[in-house]
Amino acid sequence: MRVAVLGGGSFGTAIASIAADNGATVRQWLRDAALVDQINHEHRNGRYLPDYPINPAVVASTDLAATVAEAAVVFIAIPSKAFRGVLEQAREHLRPEQILVTTTKGIQAEGFKLMSQLIEEETGSSHIGVLSGPNLAAEIAQKQLTATVIASDDAVTRAYVQAALGCGYFRVYAGNDRYGAELGGSLKNIYAIAAGMAAALGMGENTRAMLMTRALAEMSRFAVALGANPMTFLGLSGVGDLIVTCSSQLSRNYRVGYALGEGANLDEAIEALGQVAEGVNTVKLVCAKAREEGIYMPLAQGLHHVMFDDVPARDMARALMENEQSSDVEFMLSREAVSQAHQLAPDGDA
Ligand SMILES: NC(=O)c1ccc[n+]([C@@H]2O[C@H](COP(=O)([O-])OP(=O)(O)OC[C@H]3O[C@@H](n4cnc5c(N)ncnc54)[C@H](O)[C@@H]3O)[C@@H](O)[C@H]2O)c1
Ligand SMILES: O=P(O)(O)OC[C@H](O)CO
User: Fold this and answer.
1) Which residues bind NADPH (predicted)?
2) Best residue among 6, 11, 105, 136 to mutate for probing ligand 1, ranked by most atoms within 8 Å of CB
C-alpha cells in the first residue's frame, strides 16, 4: 500500500510512522525544508515530536505533487485554518480513485463546514473518510496501545484505511456516520479547555466527571440538532476522545485551559503552546451556531464568557451550578418535563 500524509505536525508524523510500521510505502509532505531533511536523515521530527523516533521508511518532501502521485490513501493532517488552502494546492494532483482522509478536528468559520465537507467541495471525491478517536500523537509515537475510528459511508475507504493503519499497537474501528464522528472530534476540544481550567483551579474528580458527562449531553444535543446520529457519541470518536482530551496534559486544548486556570491570558496561553489548539476557535463558532439555532449549550457559552469576556472561571462555575436543575439523560426524560415539574415541589424560599 502507498500512503501519503499532508502535514508535518505531530499527528501527521504519528500517522506516517504507523503506516510505515505497518509496511506501507509512506511519503509525507511538509513546507519546512530543514524539517524534511531532519525526518529523512535523523528519522525524527524535532519541531513537533522531538522525543520519539520515526520509522526510517517514512520519506518526507516539500514536493506536494510527488508526495501524492502514487498514493492509494492520502491523509490530511493540516490545521483547519489552512485546510482548504492545502486542498486547493493538492487538487490538481489528485486522482478520483484516491482515498482522501481528514484527521483534523476543527471547523471552518465560513458556512460552519467540517473538513470532510471541504474535501467534498474541493475534489468531488466519492472516497472520503474521517479518522477520529482518542489519539494523542505523543502516545501513538510511543506505540501505546491505541484505537481510532475511520468513519465513511464508502466501504472501500473504510477497508483501505483499516488495512493501511491497523497494526499491533493501533486498532482501527469502522463507522458510517462521517458527520457525527467529525463533529465529535471538534466539539470535545471545547470541553478539554474547560477540564484543563478546572484542574488548574484545584477542582476534584467529581467535578471532572460532572463536566465530562454534561459535555457529552451537550455535544449530542448539538449534534442531533444538526442532523448527526447521537449513537456515534457512544463510540471512540465521541466519548472516547472526550475522555482522553479532558484528562491529559498531552492534549494541547487541555493545556490551554490549564494555563488560563493558572492566570495566563488567552494570547499567553496560545503562545506558550506553540502548536494548534483547535478548541479556541471552535468554542467561538459553536457558540455562534448554537445561538443561531437556539441550541442550549450552557457549558460552551460559559467557557466563551471566561475566555473572551473576562468572566472569572470560578464565578462562571458557580453560576452554572445555580442554573435550573435539569434532566440527566434527556433522550429519555426531556428538560421541559423536568422544568414543568418544578412547580410540584415546595418553593425553596417558602
Ligand atoms: N496532535 C494530536 O495528538 C492530534 C491527534 C488527533 C488529531 N489531531 C488533529 O490533527 C490536526 C493537525 O494537528 P497536528 O497535531 O499535526 O498539528 P501541529 O500543530 O502539530 O502541526 C500542524 C502542521 O500543519 C502545518 N501547516 C500549517 N499551515 C499549513 C499550510 N498552510 N500549509 C502546509 N502546512 C501547514 C504546520 O507547519 C505543521 O506542520 C489538528 O486539527 C488536530 O485536531 C491532532
Ligand atoms: O492535543 P489536542 O487537544 O488537539 O488533542 C489531540 C487529540 O484530538 C486527542 O484525540
Assistant:
1) 10-11, 31, 48, 105, 137, 252, 276, 278
2) 11
